[in-house]
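Onboarding guide, step 5: your first structure request.
Type a short instruction followed by the sequence, for example:

Predict the 3D structure of this protein.
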Amino acid sequence: MTTAPLSLEHLIRPSSLVERKPPVMFMFHGYGSNEEDLFSFASELQEELCIISVRAPYTMEPFGYAWYAINFDAEKGKWSDDEQAIESREKIVHFIKEACTTYGLDEDRITLLGFSQGTILSYAVSLSYPEKIKNVVALSGYINEGIILKGFAEKDHKHLNIYASHGQVDQVIPPEWAQKIPALLTRLGVSYVYEEFPVGHGVSPQNFYAFKKWLENKI
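The system replies with structure tokens like these:
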């Protein structure tokens, strides 16, 4: 039996579980990268997880992919295309449903892992649809409320778990932007951990082992 191609390009590492629907982690890379980037973590993560690393839908020149455009304008400075970001948010939600059906995954045990722009989208998806997502590992990103579903603050976020981390000397996304995350998550009633590491815009070994340990009893 053959299945139609899914709506987004991706890499997959199957779960070690064979007797029941496995939990799944969806990975979302940063601006200008691709699905191979975060997939390098897969071999070190929990074997029961099915891991799906997703390629962003917008092609960049000369290479790489983006979840939405980041524009540079002499008057406006640097700004994000929020309309494209909202489109990507919905593409991700559709893809998650599609992948869970196609691969027989447990829709009640979904984890999102993002880096940078992929983290911004992971926040947008999980805070818009907290009933669909169990865990989020949010690396080197921030919350853009402009791309979250209207009325999200009225939803029940108490079952959502978020691990957020940021580099103390990040020159791409200022630490001050990430430091606003705890206050918002506290207001929403989200269970979270927020940590900083003495690195730039990247994931240190200490950061990797910290979120891997955090995941242990949550998947």
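Each response can be followed by summary notes, for example: Helices lie at 36-39, 82-103, 117-128, 175-178, 181-188, 205-215.
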